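In response to reviewer comment 3 from the previous cycle, which asked for concrete evidence that the modeling workflow produces usable outputs, we include below a single protein chain processed end to end. The sequence was submitted unchanged, and the resulting structure tokens are shown without manual editing.
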Amino acid sequence: MNAPSLPPLEYLLECSVTSLQSLELACLNRSQHSLKTARMELEESVAQRECAGVARWLIENRQSLLSVSQHTLSFTSS
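The workflow returned the following structure tokens.
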């Protein structure tokens, strides 16, 4: 998303206070929206790292988990 550029300084100097206030509010609104989007992206990134960590743990511990579960199943069915 491209950041909107400010109009030329000459134009801004000719704007009314009301117009400048509108510009200010619009910029603050876009800033807030950008921060919200960034926060959501960060939360998604953290969640994906957690999923990757679980997958890595399962990769590294899969064989021992299978052995324990097989031992438990054979013990309970005896």
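The chain has one domain: 16-76. We consider this sufficient to address the reviewer's concern, and the full set will be provided in the supplementary archive.
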